[in-house]
Amino acid sequence: MLALREKIEKIAFVVYYQKNNIYSFNALIGALETEEELDDIKYYFIRGSENLVNKLESICDNHQKVVLGISFFTPQLWEINELLKSLQVKYKGRVLFIAGGPHPTGDPEGTLKMGFDIVVVGEGEETLIEILSNVKNDKKLDAIRGIASFNKDKILITTKRRKWIDLDKYPPLPVKNVKFGAIEITRGCPFACYFCQTPYILGTLPRHRSIKSICNAVNVMKSYDKTDIRFITPNAFSYGSSNGKSLNIPLLEKLLIEVTKIIKPKGKIYLGSFPSEVRPEHVTKETLGLILKYAANDNIVLGAQSGSQKVLDSCNRGHSIKDVYNAVNLTLEAGLIPKVDFIFNLPGETEEDIELTIDFMYKISDMGAKIHSHTFMPLPLTRFAYEDVKDVDEKIIKAISKLSSQGLAYGEWKKQEKIAKDISKYLKKMN
């Protein structure tokens, strides 16, 4: 009877563990595990909306308090909205619904209107620790820093933002509730491109995880025979840079050397490829040499976004068309495949800009590059949040179809085009 009571009284933290949020939840659970006070929390990682709706029943039956965390991007807004409706029907009052991630941070009021109880605004590690501690100790949640909620009169209350966290304070991966994935080595981006949420959510001054902290995570992975190592960073070649714009080659190489020592002889490092990319102006013989010497990837992902310098400047990209061309050329000379990102329909794009982009895509694909195609999506917090979304130009569609048929282009631009229109309508309505 006592054992049953102890089981029922435990707190459950349920994670909606989907492809798009695995990395962020790994970091959050890693942080929660560092707090001894929260050692008695039971964690559940649930994939699939139907599984979540069904499995919450037994979790609620076996725990006194249940907290559900859902992290999502703006393109997932409608999917999450439908899921939450289903959950509210069965579990309202029985589960504390918490949202976090890029969309909730940028649109806390809209997220709360969906039915969430609390929105975590910005980085979640310290905020989530405090939320779960307060839940455990029956304390109020409304004074916690870094959250948004409605008061009893349905008025939005947003507490003070937290200071940026020191990445070394917490491990990048869970150790007790073992989960693996790419290791986050840098947060923050100084370039502040007008279509990107990263600098608005994580800051413009880069923060780097120390080599020691990264290697600790690699050692944990190796102990489970996981030795293929990937990194999460806004710009893979900027690791160790004080400002994110200059390079710190010695520190980047030291990181690669130390990781190699741990994972050899069978392990592999992937740098500058999925799930990260590199800035074109940072592609040099020296940085490519690091990939050839230490990494296993046969490609690097380059952010070009447009073939028009005017469009690049209007997006605050901070690099030139020439930088992209040079990066492609150097990458090919190194024997690697450049996968080059382009975003169609960027605000202010004219017929001339479209022609320049098409010509540039043909030029670099003829050289040997592959085109990764995207459609512009307005995102909350960004400078382009309320820009109009047009249909992708027919000339772009024709060009991409031709390149795709030749195996020189890939991407989900068509799916993104529809989502972009829905996002634009939503944001303008909320504004």
Descriptive overview:
With 431 residues, this protein is of the alpha/beta class. Helix content is 42%, strand content 17%. The protein contains 16 helices and 16 strands. The chain has helices at 2-9, 22-32, 49-62, 77-91, 102-106, 108-113, 125-136, 198-202, 211-223, 249-263, 285-294, 309-314, 321-333, 351-367, 394-405, 413-430; strands at residues 11-16, 42-46, 65-71, 95-100, 118-120, 147-150, 156-158, 183-184, 186-187, 207-208, 228-232, 268-270, 299-305, 337-344, 370-375, 409-411. Helix 2 crosses helix 7 (125-136), helix 9 (211-223) runs parallel beside helix 10 and helix 14 (351-367) packs parallel to helix 15.
Short description:
With 431 residues, the chain is of the alpha/beta class.
Number of strands: 16
Helix content: 40-55%
Please give the largest β-sheet. 7 strands, mixed
- Under CATH, the topology of the domain at 2-158 can be stated as Rossmann fold
Strand order of the largest sheet: 2-1-3-4-5-6-7
**Uncertain spans:** 1-7
Going by CATH, the architecture of the domain at 2-158 would be 3-Layer(aba) Sandwich
